[in-house]
Design goal:
The protein is 25% helix and 34% strand. With 260 residues, the chain is an alpha+beta fold.
Length: 260
């Protein structure tokens, strides 16, 4: 493998020739994202099993993902990738009004408080449910906020919504490195709210605000991923996000778990 696992653009190689290119990241474990096969799958798949045991592998190549599942990989997520092209006029984009009594605030609250909102937003029957553990959720959010997972926090574009002094909605954006480039793309890493109908529209308002902040900073695009089946997909389209690609992610067993 070229480059260090868990950091940036990497490849898997056979006899010095690259057979798989991917963007390595550390988020809920090691991830080989945006994986692209550079050789026939009969060559690529055994190398993936050998070198990426215990990793998650994400790709828009259905044949690659299907082969890994056939070999025993566990499906983790099927997501649509959306992007919004920011134009200069959106510097003056005003967030849609928040419900009465609510206000925007800086992303400077405790990760435990954010984690509690996240757990309420993603119950066990939600397409994006991953865990009901507060500490685990807080650890994931901490990695986004301190920039150790997806890239530096975009502090001005990120925010929360408060009802009095209680947090009801959260929006986190990071500067995610673009594969094979030294540049980055603003990325909506998290946007969620309490399921109370009184807080409907707060997520969209947070995204409106984020787009305006990014426009004022001179950014030209912002992206996000949404799990297939999440009703929020309609909200993103209404905000001007357009479908860019679809990606599936699987988890490979660790070596000590063996390969079927």
């Amino acid at each position: 493998m070229s480059n260090d696992p868990g950091s940036g653009n990497s490849t898997l190689e056979v006899d010095g020739a690259a057979v798989l290119r991917f963007e390595a990241a550390s988020f809920d474990g090691l991830i080989a994202d945006d994986a692209v096969a550079l050789a026939p799958l009969d060559i690529v798949v055994p190398i993936v099993w050998r070198d990426l045991a215990g990793w998650q592998v994400g790709s828009s190549d259905n044949d690659l993902i299907d082969r890994l599942i056939e070999g025993g990989a566990t499906p983790v997520r099927h997501a649509n990738i959306y992007r919004h092209r920011i134009n200069e006029a959106e510097r003056d984009r005003w967030p849609r009004p928040l419900p009465s009594g609510l206000r925007f605030a800086a992303l400077d609250r405790s990760v435990e408080e954010m984690a509690a909102v996240s757990l309420a937003a993603y119950p066990s029957d939600h397409p994006d449910f991953e865990t009901d553990d507060l500490n685990e959720t807080a650890s994931v959010l901490k990695g986004l906020i301190d920039g150790s997972d997806l890239g530096p926090l975009l502090k001005d574009a990120s925010a929360v919504v408060l009802d009095g002094d209680s947090m009801v909605a959260v929006c986190i954006l990071n500067a995610m490195p673009r594969p094979g480039s030294s540049s980055y793309e603003p990325w909506v890493s998290e946007v969620f709210r309490l399921p109370n109908p009184a807080y409907g529209g707060t997520g969209a308002a947070l995204l409106d605000r984020a787009i305006a902040e990014l426009a004022r900073a001179g950014e030209t695009s912002v992206g996000l991923a949404v799990t297939v089946g999440n009703a929020a997909e309609r909200v993103y389209r209404d905000l001007g996000f357009e479908l860019a690609s679809t990606s599936r992610r699987v988890r490979l067993p660790h070596r000590d778990g063996g390969k079927p």
